Amino acid sequence: MTSRRRTPTGELVRKFLSLGLASLCVTVIIGCAALPEDAPVLEQLDNETGVTIARLGHPMELYRETFQRDPSGRFAFLAPFETNNMGNREPFLLIGLPENRGAALTPVLLVNGKPVTLEAPAHAADIAGLQESPYKIPMPWVETYYYRADAALIAQLGDAESLRIEVMEESRNGPRTVEYSADVAGDPRLSDFAGR
After folding, report:
1. Nearest 5°: CA angle at 174, between 110 and 163?
2. Are 48 and 130 in contact (CB under 8 A)?
3. Residue 8 CB neighbours (<10 A)
4. Residue 36: inside a domain, yes or no?
5. Contact at 8 Å (CB) between 111 and 78?
6. CB of 62 within 8 A of CB of 181?
7. Can you give the CATH number for the domain in which 186 is found?
8. Cβ count within 10 A of residue 22
């Protein structure tokens, strides 16, 4: 009577192959689930509402020249997005500004040096029918302003070479205008978004 014994080498090969196959499966699943946040324009499904959202990969960053030591007030964000709810498309604009410690801010947007007329803002994404912002703003101390937009504003942003946001801010010497600006002539994100 002969018996079949497993050789140590055969057992080692089986373990190696099963581990390799499991690693390959995990890599494929992770690769499929990853969203390319660095793409100029993304489309994603909002899990809470079922609305399709088209947005920039990252919000446009506007910079404030400042002599303050606190770096938290140096950046503002501008980010268009569009919701598509069963074919009903609505464009919106998100502006993110550093919190002004209780003072009400009224941002003024200038595209290529010309002021843009915006409606009264909302401070939550529910204006767009969303439960949360379509953007992950990298700083928690940012106050968000959501505006309804139209095709003309999106086209104007697509043709932008410069962006500026102005706000009145209280200082020790009284109110003053603070400017956040960005030169976007070489950045294709807004033109790609407008051209979709």
Report:
1. 15
2. yes
3. 8
4. no
5. no
6. yes
7. 2.60.40
8. 10
CA distance 90 to 7: 66
Q: What is the pLDDT of residues 124-143, one digit of tens each?
A: 999 999 999 999 887 778 89
pTM for the whole structure: 0.77
38 alpha-carbon distance from chain centroid: 10
The tokens 């140096």 sit on which residue? 74
Question: Which DSSP string corresponds to 4-73?
Answer: ----HHHHHHHHHHHHHHHHHHHHHHHHHH---TTSSEEEEE-TTT--EEEEESSPEEEE-----S-GGG
State the residue range of the domain holding 145. Answer: 41-194
Q: How many domains does the chain have?
A: 1
DSSP 159: T
Q: Which residues contact 41 (CB under 8 A, 6 or more apart)?
A: 54, 55, 56, 57, 189, 192, 193, 196
CA-based nearest residue to 73, from 167, 141, 136? 141
- Quick one: tokens of 123? 């401070």
Structure letter (DSSP) for residue 3 = -
Tokens 């009264």 belong to 120
Measure the CA dihedral 42/44/46/51, to 10°: 100
For the stretch 55-88, pLDDT in tens is 999 999 999 876 555 555 788 999 999 999 999 9
Q: How far apart are CA 25 and CA 14, in angstroms?
A: 17
Query: What is the rounded distance in angstroms from the CA atom of residue 151 to the CA atom of residue 159?
Result: 12
Amino acid letter for position 9: T
